[in-house]
Write a structure and sequence with these properties.
This protein has 309 residues and is an alpha/beta fold. The chain has nine helices and 14 strands. The protein is elongated.
Length: 309
């Protein structure tokens, strides 16, 4: 038995939840997939899946085997990349990626443009959506996700940090007054995000956390919409610095309660499997990690207003 192939089949079936889907992805017959699974189970001495006519689910032994098989396959790819003849070849092929509209417009689009300019053999398909994408069903190679806490079951690499600020236009603050304390926000039109602090904003100062109930006339599921509403003098919003930096720098927007920190989030690249175009995925991950990093280049555009908490 080719154990590496058997492990590849096992991981593919586990990730896709279907023998037929795995067979199509691996360009094998369904019978061959079934045979590899049976041989792997014989070798391990344990059943890996509960199978019915409608569903296939991992057994307890299968759950334990899945992560170990993933690691072994990744080690094999790392070894091949390190010593193979193609290790020094430039990346090539097509990469399908997704992220939020706001991050895509403000940061990722220019990063992608620079990457494909550097590597002429690469084509990148960008899907800008404001929902959690099923990587396998939508054939996504990389998803850029910004979150406080990443699902530990996901395969991910941290790329950078996402900090946020409360902001408004000078005209709005001149008309409504500038908040001096978090409690003052209750008297303001706070424009909120559907998924991040829709009714409660978390702030921090000198290690002390403050939660403020907020509300206003506009709520949206996309930060770009809130940004345009803020620029139209509609109210105060909590927005990421990757969007705000040039507007704060130019004076079009003003930081509100700059002594208070919004707890930062991580920016992650999430992927279903390192077995899909590993050289290209690895190259693009390294590029993004180097480009953004823990001190992203948009933050030097800000005045010295980011608090240390």
């Amino acid at each position: 038995m080719d154990r590496m192939t058997a492990m590849t089949v096992f991981v593919e079936v586990a990730e896709r939840g279907s023998l037929t889907a795995a067979a199509e992805a691996l360009e094998m017959s369904r019978a061959m997939v079934t045979r590899y699974l049976a041989e792997l189970e014989d070798w391990l001495g344990a059943r890996l899946f509960h199978r019915t006519t409608r569903r296939i689910n991992l057994t307890s032994a299968g759950e334990q085997a899945l992560e170990r098989c993933r690691r072994l396959l990744e080690l094999g790819e790392d070894l091949q990349a390190a010593v193979g003849e193609s290790a020094n070849a430039p990346p090539h092929g097509q990469l399908r990626i997704t992220c939020s509209t706001s991050f895509g417009q403000s940061q990722l689009a220019t990063a992608v443009a620079d990457y494909v300019d550097r590597f002429a053999g690469v084509r990148i398909d960008m899907l800008m959506v404001d929902r959690t994408v099923n990587l396998i069903e939508e054939r996504i190679d990389l998803a850029i996700r910004i979150t406080h806490e990443l699902d530990p079951s996901l395969i991910a690499r941290r790329l950078s940090v996402c900090r946020s600020l409360l902001c408004a236009t000078p005209a709005y603050l001149a008309a409504r007054g500038t908040p001096q304390r978090p409690e003052d926000l209750v008297r303001h039109n706070c424009l909120t995000h559907h998924f991040v602090g829709k009714s409660l904003w978390q702030l921090r100062r000198h290690g002390r956390d403050v939660a403020v109930a907020v509300g206003g006339s506009i709520s949206a599921n996309e930060a770009s919409v809130l940004l345009q509403a803020v620029r139209a003098d509609a109210g105060i919003a909590m927005l990421p610095t990757y969007q705000l930096a040039p507007l704060i720098h130019s004076g079009e927007l003003v930081a509100v309660l700059p002594d208070y920190e919004v707890p930062p989030m991580g920016i992650y690249a999430v992927y279903a499997s390192r077995r899909q175009m590993p050289a290209l995925v690895r190259s693009f991950l390294d590029f993004l990690s180097e480009r953004f990093g823990e001190a992203p280049d948009w933050e030097p555009q800000l005045p010295a207003i980011l608090p240390l908490g």
